[in-house]
Amino acid sequence: MSTQISEVEQEQLIEKLEIFKIHGRDKRGRKILRIIGKFFPARFLSLDVLKKYLEEKIFPRLGRKPFAVLYVHTGVQRSENFPGISALRAIYDAIPVNVRDNLQEVYFLHPGLQSRLFLATCGRFLFSGGLYGKLRYISRVDYLWEHVRRNEIEMPEFVYDHDDDLEYRPMMDYGQESDHARIFPGAAVDSSVSSFSMRCIS
Hints:
Elements: H1 7-17, E1 20-25, E2 31-36, H2 47-62, E3 67-72, H3 78-81, H4 85-94, H5 97-102, E4 103-109, H6 112-126, E5 135-138, H7 141-144, E6 155-156, H8 157-168, E7 196-197
Parallel strand pairs: 2-3, 3-4, 4-5
Antiparallel strand pairs: 1-2, 6-7
């Protein structure tokens, strides 16, 4: 990760994009830390600022009770949103022991073939404390509601759009077809990161 803006601007960017949000509960009543991977501005954040933000704004709010992480991998591109392997390890190592021990599940939504292979080959070596064993791959939003209270979680619209793509282009699940956005004549692209949908609620 590289820094091109001031520390204050980086913190403001994290807040504005709502990359990390303690939001809702799973079916076992545990708090959920929702992380939207696509919103992560890896090119603009320094590792120190990110660790400071988590230590001051996120970890204290998790308290001393068990919690779960919902990581939304939809739309993540290595060149734009991926902080790097060494940064991931440094972030994980910086998590206080009591917080790490209270982490019970990591719901990994829309993992994709590459991330599955990476975690299968390197996950056990990169992450100590049994984190790899806490991963739960979730291929569709509908399957997520088997674990998470659906009326308590908001998702960006592009997450549901990706689900629709997977229904019509199932080979994307296996890395056999690109998941890059398709361009249609007359289609407008909305880049707003605050466009959320509650259409899943019944």
